[in-house]
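Quick sanity check, NAD(P)-dependent dehydrogenase (Short-subunit alcohol dehydrogenase family):
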Amino acid sequence: MSKQIAIVTGGGAGLGLAITKKLAHEGIHVVMIGRNEEKLKTAAQDFGSSCSYKVLDLQDLKAIPALVDEIYQEFGKIDILVNNAGINMKKPFVEVTDEDFAGVVQTNLASVFAISREVVKKMIDHHAGVIVNISSMAAQYGIPKVIAYSAAKTGIEGMTRAMSTELAPLGIRTNCVAPGFIETAMSAKALDADPERKNKVFSRTPMGKMGQPDDVAEAVYFFCSEGSKYVTGVVMPVDGGNSVGF
């Protein structure tokens, strides 16, 4: 195929869906990976031939190599990987079990490593490729009651920098987008149920408003495009200034 081929994990909902929409609009064929086949199928139908999907729970690390092989055999290349899939858990520190912690880290960090490793094996053959990881404000400063998520997302940023130094000589760029508070159904539900946290979000966001999923999608596309061809190892906050707000 002459089109670029992108994998977007968690591409059927939320920020992932916005990223899928943007890449597809730019003429890139997107292969969404996710657990919910109904959401993936609906998204794929909306985007037509610009999009397809594979169903996989990324906690199943052993299944990842075969899935990447399947995508590579089907399309002949993988140009872009967007590691967006993630889960969160809001719990007081002392109530988080070992199993809770391991589950969040498995999905949000270990799976990112595993799928990146397998995709890089394919990108090396073409001496080209782009990987974009999705981090969070939870890696920029301390947020209470999300210890596992914070640990995983901080790991994502460190891994982004380490990957960039090792993979750049192979023609592969690795960057990261760190969304702030973005207006999604999930964030609205969380903030509306916690007025104190909602007030704190707006009080320390200089732009005084929440971002839109499209804002994150545009940043991801920048890292996928020729406009960033000399950029690697960067963590870009898309947060209305939240990470530097007082």
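Posting the structure with no commentary besides this: Residues 98-126 form the longest helix (29 residues).
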